[in-house]
Amino acid sequence: MIKNLINFGFAGRIYPINPSYSETLGMTAYPDVRQVNDSIDMAIVITPSPIVPKVIKECAQKGIKAAIIISDGFAEADEEGMRLQKEIVEISHQTGIRLIGPNTIGVVDTANNLVTTPYFTGYSKIREGTIVYAAQTGIAGAQALPLEDYAYPISKMCDFGNKCDINEVDLLEYLATDSETKVIAMHLEDIKDGRQFLNVARKVIPNKPVLVLKPGRNEASTNAMSSHTGSLAGDDKVYNGAFKQAGVIRLDTWRELLEIPRVFVSQPLPSGNRLGIVTMTGGAGIMIIDAAVESGLTIAQLSPPTIDKLADISPRIVSNPVDIGQVWTLINSYIPTLEPAIAAVLADKSVDCVAIVVWASTMPQVPEITEMFYRLKQQFSKPMTIWIYGTNLAVAEELSRELEAIGLPTYSNLETAIKALGVAAKYAQIRSRFNAEPIT
Amino acid sequence: MIKNLINFGFAGRIYPINPSYSETLGMTAYPDVRQVNDSIDMAIVITPSPIVPKVIKECAQKGIKAAIIISDGFAEADEEGMRLQKEIVEISHQTGIRLIGPNTIGVVDTANNLVTTPYFTGYSKIREGTIVYAAQTGIAGAQALPLEDYAYPISKMCDFGNKCDINEVDLLEYLATDSETKVIAMHLEDIKDGRQFLNVARKVIPNKPVLVLKPGRNEASTNAMSSHTGSLAGDDKVYNGAFKQAGVIRLDTWRELLEIPRVFVSQPLPSGNRLGIVTMTGGAGIMIIDAAVESGLTIAQLSPPTIDKLADISPRIVSNPVDIGQVWTLINSYIPTLEPAIAAVLADKSVDCVAIVVWASTMPQVPEITEMFYRLKQQFSKPMTIWIYGTNLAVAEELSRELEAIGLPTYSNLETAIKALGVAAKYAQIRSRFNAEPIT
After folding, report:
1. Number of other residues whose CB lies within 10 A of the CB of residue A252
2. ipTM of the complex
């Protein structure tokens, strides 16, 4: 954990506490937190569970206001663990020390380079940004995701673990006024207090979308959750109804939770749900329509001036999806065809958002395509998502990083690229329900 | 096209035909196919559409039995294209020359290194294997997929294009007895003759699974398909019913079509639908249960001997999902825990198939994990799929390639890893309906 903090660039003072050592990584180790001659803001606790209550008590005595309990062996484990968890909750109530966890990998904050995971992270610094990932599982942690490879712009990450004290409601309340956060993505196995969650969510949602992956869609998974994080989940239909009422958008898969938030980071909200499609393969165009309709989008009817512009490129590409594949066969470089086609669709007033399918298979294509999108992004501010396909994974990943860097969201699944726009359009609609001012 | 054929290792004789050149790539170019002084097995045609009928006639006169028409500008384009397509179909009927396309990138055959795409492919050779990809779109082509990076084991690929002559029924009939093919994955925008398709599919399915991605789930996409490949699609519900009756398994997304077939290449069929789960993160375990139940699997009840074996590792991992994450926190290497846990679940007679979630973030882990799976694969022949997560994409991709190489299917989406097992179990059930002999 200390190594991770240092590699991550955490600039605060760190005091290792361990009665068995007098030194670690060149720092003095203290047998007891109360012996540290400095005020301490937060403790990260990773002792065996039976001694956690003692440690938390000592932290409270030292005047520490918050602790993250990485240790497991609490309510998720057994009867004794349940008892231990109750004990630390009582200490929290009595002393006012607030707790994240137990059974958590803790938090990441890119604003002050704080990372609390004890696992190998593999990078020095996550890209600072505006997405919050919060989860009730370690797989939303800094040790689990290729955040550096994807250059995901992260504001904060939080693993709630067993949520013995701080939970999704506290985090939402905090994030409501956090200027570094633009979009909140949460994995929740349960919600501790439904009414409170909905009340807070309603306050946050006019300003920031809240996207939730809520597993437990059937009896088998609901039962398993109780042993994972010691929590009791309610009826899935109840969750669905409540989310809908509050304007929380429910996602279906882990990859959606990982990838969809990015559409809110760099793209403006669509002013409606009419989708324009520019593709280099007709087959993908059709699949996009299926995914679009299932995501609540409609297929835009291109306006006459757009049709004229497209007809100037080729009379064969005058309808939506605009399938460049049809006129691309015999040319070496497709950008002179693709760029005006995308521009025409982006300029169309009957189009609210645009999905683009682009083929790339060689490294020299990466700067060419990036420059094309850069020019388009200078001219238009309509939301778009991009799906890249081709023969070479390294090329696709490099292009993806380059496009992310200029503020365009790319997706590894065709369907997720479309659902991202559908979710953005749905959020725009939810906001208007709250009569919210446009986000600037 | 000629460059692709050469790079791909095609050993047959190639005769370029073009009236404007006398030589290309050091080969003599002929103005007319009839002037070639050799017998020719197949023609690849990529002239402008108006002269395709003349070219096909000449091919037929030369005694060529098959032509792949790459050119577009036929039924998918306009009235004139429709007329041209009718004309080539008539020539085919009159002369017996069989046609793939038009508007296609043609075929790949790894057995004789044949590739007919005119696009950049980016590799010298696709890995020879037993999967057939057939599609009515270029995105299932050799120029569109990272087949080398994924080391996908390909038997044949076929883009039907406009399907003016050879279609999915012909291909299925051919593949029924093709010893190089174990699984058939098809993207179909329509089916030309439903009754014929079902009759042929019924013959193939007892021996080889047929997986179909059939876009056109709504009116908008159905309409768009008619301009993509000039075909008329019927009611989606009719397709669903017919597929079910014939035992064709319908997939939902492009990535499923790409990734699910691999489970049939290397894994035995499950003898039932009871899923065992071994995971390094409890959160993924719960998501797997959701995906499993939705894919028709049930969560296996571990038998007493298995529970004993797991309790020997740790009393905390005695139920399914077996969550190693709970006992992994404080150890450096997890393999001594993970390996016996996977072995215990694989050995359990109440478990028909196993989903494994494995964390890898450093290159040195790749051989360690690969060796662990190699040992497990030597001992057990139960079907399994693997989802890899971690901080580093390159590590995950390298591990994925290594595991594929030893015959284990890995998946980039958690949900697809589970659905692959669900589809395998469903196919096993379909086969038993046909009273088929076990595949050996």
Report:
1. 15
2. 0.90
Which residue on chain B is closest to A187 by alpha carbon? B283
Q: Does A271 touch chain B (CB under 8 A)?
A: no
Q: Chain A closest CA to B19's CA: distance in Å?
A: 18
- Is A29 buried (19+), middle (13-18) or exposed (0-12) by CB count in 10 A? middle
> Residues for chain A: how many in total?
440
Return the DSSP state at B138.
G
Please report the pLDDT score of residue B234 as a whole number: 65
- pLDDT value, residue B440: 45
What are A53-58's contacts with CB under 8 Å, separation 24+?
Answer: A53/A84, A53/A87, A53/A88, A53/A91, A56/A88, A56/A91, A56/A92, A56/A97, A56/A99, A57/A91, A57/A95, A58/A32, A58/A33, A58/A34
What are the chain A neighbours of B47 within 8 Å (beta carbons)? none
Cβ distance of B139 and A189 shorter than 8 Å: no
The residue to which tokens 């992004």 are assigned: A377
Q: Strand, helix or coil at A346?
A: helix
User: How many Å apart are CA A240 and CA B203, to the nearest integer?
Assistant: 44
Candidate from B146, B253, B323 with C-beta closest to A392 = B146
Where does residue A435 rank: exposed (0-12), middle (13-18), buried (19+ CB within 10 A)?
exposed
Kindly give the parts of chain A with pLDDT less than 70.
122-124, 226-234, 328-332, 435-440
Instruction: For residue B299, list chain A residues with Cβ-Cβ distance below 8 A.
Output: 220, 224
Residue-wise pLDDT for A159-216, tens only, equals 998 999 999 999 999 999 999 999 999 999 888 888 899 999 999 999 999 999 998 8
- How far is the CA of A326 from the CAs of A314, A418, B49, in angstroms? 9, 22, 13
Q: How far apart are the first and last CA of chain B?
A: 38
Average pLDDT over residues B177-189: 94
Cα distance between residue B341 and residue B219, in whole Å = 49
Evaluate whether A265 touches A130 at the Cβ level (below 8 Å): yes
Q: What are the tens digits of pLDDT across the range B347-392? A: 999 999 999 999 988 899 999 999 999 999 999 999 999 999 988 8
Answer for the pair B144, B187: CB distance below 8 angstroms, yes or no: no
For chain B, say whether A339 makes contact (Cβ under 8 Å).
no
Judging contacts by C-beta atoms under 8 Å, the chain A residues touching residue B361 are 120, 122, 143
Q: Is the pLDDT of residue B44 over 70?
A: yes
Determine the Cα–Cα distance for residues B42 and B33; give it in Å rounded to an integer.
11
Asked whether the beta carbons of residue A393 and residue B397 sit closer than 8 angstroms, the reply is: yes
